[in-house]
Batch of 3 targets.
Target 1
Amino acid sequence: MADVTLKGVSKSFGDKRAVEGVDLHIKDGEFVVLLGPTGAGKTTTLRLIAGLEKPDAGTISIGGRPMEGLAPAGRDVAFVFQQYSLYPHLTVYENLAFPLRSPARRMDAAAVDARVRQVAKMVRIDHKLENRSTRLSGGEMQRVAIGRALVRRPAIYLMDEPLSSLDAKLRGELRLELKRIQKELGATLLYVTHDQIEAMTMADRIGILAEGRLVQIGTPREIYADPANLHVAARLGQPHINIVPVDLLPGATPPRGATAIGARTEHIAIAASEGGNARVDWIEHLGDQNHLHIRVGAHKLVTLADPDMPVNPGDRIDLTLKNPLYFGQDGQRLV
Amino acid sequence: MSAANSAHSVVEPGAASKRIAATLVILYAVITLVPLVWIFLTSIKSPPDSISYPPKILFTPSLEGYCNLFTTRTRQTPEYIAALPEPDGICDAVTRKRNMVIAGPSNFLPRFANSLIIAFGSTFLAVGLGTLAAYGFSRFKVPLADDLLFFILSTRMMPPIAVAIPIYLMYRQLGLSDTAIGMMLLYTAVNVSLAVWLLKGFIDEIPREYEEAAMIDGYSRLQAFRKVVLPQATTGIAATAIFCLIFAWNEYAFASLLTSGSAQTAPPFIPTIIGEGGQDWPAVAAGTTIFLVPILVFTILLRKQLLRGITFGAVRK
């Protein structure tokens, strides 16, 4: 395992800028998640580190070693592709053994066998080792793809939305499993996703990417509570953060220059009141909690509410802000 | 209807339409097979039977055609033949009945061997070069790739005979006329365009993530190509090889112009088999029958890949 450093890394495809001036340091044994929408440059960042793309500018080093001009095979990284990319002409066993049998490693057969069986057990695919890799369910393929990375002990594991094509239950299980394995191995891992729950639950640190730039990086708590701008604030939190004008609701103490308020559930106090400033439009019952859809003048807000709260659609309520987030004209956070 | 069935057909065809389809297929098969059957039957007729009119459907089979194909013969007086010891083998006996003796082996075997060497050699070269070129066009940013591909294809846009004279002159200058290597190069040049185009389609279908995964797993690009791309391209390679082989095997125009002696292939040789008093049709038919065998065997061996290859684009995804 090793640390990974990116300095001012940029990459364009034609006139489309995929990654722009990214500085990122991943510590040895750290689990970093890059979070961002499609096209934010997440996958390109992984491919640049793996050596599948050449950066237009900037440097990448792994374990202190500069990677410039080094082929993927020489970089000692493992990659889990979003589309599994299992070798279709090989069995599960052969897929898992493939990296170990590479000319770069040349492990002896007994060691390969032991390692493959150990990892197969770890990702719970040991009962299907002799299956053709094409004769597996999506979840099984994904576990083989992760296993194929885990058979090695590379400097860094790079994972590109490895859980995106699984159903919700399996995704939850594998999320825990992956975090457990990473801790156990003390592995350095860079993980790309657009799923905020994966980011929040697994990451030591989350990096938020937007339009090729690394907007903010910090612990999940920091990113959630202390977002640098509107974009970061909008990436985390369920329901979505409410963006309202500064003078819409009472309780705000906007600093100079604030033009918008970001209010999550915890920033909004609700009280039932006949003459309240808001009206309940609709209630979504989720079981353990309710989503309240609220209308204030022409603005719509969504917030969580206790299922026991005695409100019905059409009721008037009173909303007060408690320490919300303030944003300036340019979308940057103001404190 | 089972789920497996419904994946391929929306509605199972009815019994009547199945019968009509089967009838049409059989009819087509019969029509295309008639000439082949006729050639085979001619090959086991005696020379008089082969040219009798109306054509004979029922006849006494004879090996004379095959004997004449493999031998050259000289006419002798009946007295000379009567003085000879017992005939040695069937051909000897057949030949003596026509007042002739076997003088030696004919050129058929060396010509046939030329065909094998040139056709398989050029197929191997065309498919090998084609695979590498197709991989390059498929995976790398080749400057002017589209123009190059069009240029490669354009070599097939005219009939071979249109370039035969320049090639003949060129080959004479280079000393490649009537050499196996010259014919191999020529057929490779013609086939490589077909191979590049066919194989590029197949390789385009193989996601590049496979190679990328292999390269990250510790393989060089060439090793990844061999370990990951080639095994998945076998279908396309087999189909391409058959098309190339059929062309090189059957090619007549270049072969008859550029070869006459040591490098002559079977197609220009077979029609020149002349018996006494005209064309020796049973021998020609025998040569043609034997000529069909290698391509038949090769196609049967690869028929699974060929079928899958032809329907490849349609069923892959």
Target 2
Amino acid sequence: MNNKKLYIPLYYLSLLLTLCICIIPTHHIEQYLTLSKLSVLLIIINILLIIIFTVLLIKKGINKINILLPITYILFTIIVLIICILFNNKLVIPYIHYSYYIKFILINYILLNTYSLLSIKYKKK
Amino acid sequence: MKEKLKTTIFIISIIYSITILLLMLYTYTTSTNTIKLTDTKENITTLNNYKQRLNNIKPSPCKNSLNNLINHYENTSYNKKVNIKDKYNEKDWIVNYFQPINNNCNLDKETKESLSTKILTASIQFDEVLQKLYFQYELKIPDLNNRSLIEQNLDQIRYNINRKNQLDAIKTIIDLLEEDN
């Protein structure tokens, strides 16, 4: 499933989705809903990887790449969100699970970013 | 080398996504927001006995406060599966009834301390059961068989302690009111 043209929009769609997820828990002011230190660290790592990937993408372009990974990531994130909403209706404290599950989404996003970075075209000297 | 690393990350990501989703689904399906609680017939009989004793006491602010505590006891006297979310949203906790009793009844220091201990114990015991069910979002694979054997009994034991302490608190104030009467 190699498609360089489709990979870029899917990658940035993943970025948009991740940004939305980071905003949801911080939208609720309660103390227990603030992001954990680990989540903040993962966000910083992701931001750095996104910047590096975008710069290298503009300068060098990408090699052979599999679009299955961003699709899996998007599906994974959507399903996690759906289960969070289901949890929200079931449990006493609303939105608490967002701040818990966000780290799993961010770890997966690091994997996607690393994969994308490894797909950058490098000219052999 | 780079291609091998890419393939490894690809495989890790796919396996990771599937594993996390399966664990999350498992956590969701096994989490519960209901708890089975049973108040004993003995407790109900004791309460009815206290209510009869209270009827013979002349009206006073202290009696009114105690009546509110008795109403709370009756409202929380369960013999069914209780929905924790609904219960939590009611915000009807035993500690809410302590301050009016403290203000309206002539309690000496010793009685006040003993009463507050009973009410707090009743509250803590039951709140602990509720708290256990507040936070069931974590990814985990609990030993459900063991939990069904042990924790279910613990819930009932804690609820019994809650009932016992509430009844003791009611009795303490009735004794006090009867003395004043």
Target 3
Amino acid sequence: MKKGVTNWPVTILLILGCVTIFFPLYMTVIIAFKQPSEMTNSVAGALAFPSHWSLSNFAEAIRVTDFWHSLGNSVFITCATIVLTLLLHSMTGYAIGRSMARKKKYKLLYFYIVSGMFVPFAILMMPLVKQTAQMGLDNMIGVIILYLVFYMPINVMLYTGYLKNIPMAMEEAAEMDGATTWKTYWTIIFPMMKPMHATVAILTALGTWNDVMTPLVIMSGDQNTLPMAQLNFQSQFGTNYNLAFASYLLALIPILIFYLVCQKQILNGIASGAVKG
Amino acid sequence: MKTKRSMTHKDKTLLFMVLPAVILFALFNTIPLLRGAFYSLTNYRGYGTYDFVGLRNYIDLFTDIRVRNSYLFTFKYAVAGTILVNGLSLLLAMALNSKIKAKSFLRGAYFLPNILGGLIVGYIFSFIFTYILPAAGEALNIGWLQNSILADERFAWIGVLIVGVWQAVAMSTIIYISGLQTIPADIYEAGMIDGAGVWQTFKKLTLPMLMPFVSINLILSTKNMLMVFDQIMSLTKGGPAQSTESISYLIYRNGMDGGQFGFQSANAVLFFVIIVIFSVVQMKITGKKEEQL
């Protein structure tokens, strides 16, 4: 453990271990670019490079799964959820966090909301399907509202935890100058919670983008999210694995790009959430 | 008088700030929870009329073989998964936190499985289990590899487990790495001077310092493993012969489409109670250690 000396055995083991991560992705890419005629019944048939890299599977997959439409729906649901989450959960976390120490009611409120973490979706699922249908929310709006509720416990906990790092003196000074609590919150405290906004946005985004269960049971009609489209068109892929894998790859590309661009922020955001949460 | 009025104004603002969240939470969490508990006392099929049946559903839960098997599968899966995930991610975190080359690339790579959706990952692995591994088994003449494990009643759960662990390790590793970084380096130097070996250092220094993160990870991974759904949906659909039917999947399958709304509501209430007990016990056990954080 001397400083500055590279631990080569560990480095090499870790690089070899990466095979378990990249092999499934390599296979996905290779099969997605191949033609069904090249898929012989051997390992090489599936894993060798295609004889020529063809985009035809992707064109077909986009057509079959109505890709752009599902992508639009997924982007809409995730973005709306994140924006509303940051506004609503941070505000709730602030009001509870600043009142909890003085007022018992807010302390109870905190436990009321945070206890929601133990409620599995399975128990809410069937009543929620009825309820959202009755309220005319069996659509994307309903899914967004449900995400706001499902992520509320963890996010409120993260925000109230983070608030302990922000001294009361900031608000007291502003209020001395005659600013209202409402204005003080949005102009001073909200911007100061930026690192926690990043953590919350990332955790919420990963959860909502990949979620299958909520849109599957709540949304009626023919609207799909990206993961749902894979589920619903599974039968249409049939035994054409090349088409199926092209479709999977298309569904993975947006989040892969997002990860490549924001990898550092994502890892830091999750790490700081773990330390402070 | 003046200060009192400004206080009430502030209180009003704070109340106004929590109100929307509380209304939403009550409407879409508490009320459905209560409605679920209510339906669990009825023979509701999801449509039409229903009667009260008292605790009939709860009594039936304990004699229903399919329900029992789903609990056995889910617990087996959660226990094996939690142990594997925490063991592997602790090892990985220590490796990724040591003096290595290409550190940020390697950390990024090992986190990758976490950002990919469970459903699509399941489909990709399903192909590996059904085609790649049997073909490899044939080429290498390894008998047990030649049949898909997903088609075998005894081993299908291991296939689901491999995929679940592959994804869950990523998140736990990041949490363990951030835990390792809170340990000051001079502690290790002191340990080295005292002549502590690698295992000694890990047992006496690293692990105790890491306890709060172990508890976070245990609670997170147990909870996620107990609620397994996506992987089942894409890998096995609960088969073969219902050997990989998780509790969540059974509630979804039979409660939504199978006309067992009331009965599966009782199942969901039982599942909820079990998750609460699990979490409370885990927090009690590790709670004291967490306070040090």
